[in-house]
Design goal:
Helix content: over 70%
Structural class: mainly alpha
Largest sheet: none
Radius of gyration: 19 Å
Distance between the termini: 54 Å
Number of helices: 10
């Protein structure tokens, strides 16, 4: 049992590494098995196709990210402070990854969306669910801020969608230019989207 479990983890680890470095299109069963050091029979014992470990990698990554987002967005701090904390932790994570591998890797979900959302329905659907979940998490914080009259938005959910889209877009630019400095204007732009005070005034008021 332990050996089979270890083989599955090695396959997932290999799939994760290959997706992050080369993307899904370059992913193949033979390449996964070679990287994991397992025979093809072991792969097909656990997975029906290369799509299956890709979905598992996506779910694993989201489980970790969801915990991190929940930690950043909850607490006793005022809503805008919690939202800003999410942005700061996103930037810190990208900077740490850049120091480790030399490049800004971007967002796994954004990368896969750009590469293959129109190729594989199961992956496209899963990515939609994840981005919808992100929007809901941010919307709840914006709704709190609206109740406190800290922002001016007509619909917290649509505002959250714009915020998540901006975050994803700035991360994409950070990857394109290989510079986390591209995330610098993110908070000021977010406040403008939400009809909140400028950064200096927002900090002074908190």
């Amino acid at each position: 049992m332990g050996r089979t479990s270890d083989a599955r983890e090695r396959i997932l680890s290999a799939a994760r590494s290959l997706i992050e470095t080369h993307g899904y299109s370059a992913l193949g069963v033979a390449e996964i098995c070679r990287t994991a050091g397992v025979p093809k029979g072991s792969f097909y014992y656990f997975f029906a196709s290369k799509e299956s470990p890709a979905l598992a990698v996506i779910d694993e990554h989201w489980a970790g990210q969801q915990r991190a987002w929940a930690t950043a967005l909850r607490g006793e701090a005022r809503p805008l402070l919690r939202l800003r904390r999410l942005f700061e932790e996103t930037e810190a994570g990208l900077r740490a990854a850049q120091q480790s591998c030399g490049t800004v890797s971007g967002c796994l979900f954004g990368n896969l969306t750009l590469e293959m959302s129109n190729q594989t329905e199961a992956v496209r659907t899963r990515l939609q669910e994840i981005f919808d979940a992100q929007v809901e998490m941010v919307a709840s914080v914006i709704a709190e801020a609206l109740e406190r009259h800290e922002v001016e938005v007509a619909d917290p959910r649509e505002a959250a969608r714009a915020v998540v889209a901006q975050l994803e877009g700035q991360v994409l630019f950070a990857k394109l230019y290989n510079s986390t400095h591209r995330l610098g204007p993110l908070w000021a732009n977010c406040l403008a989207l939400l009809g909140a005070p400028a950064p200096r005034q927002a900090v002074a008021g908190i």
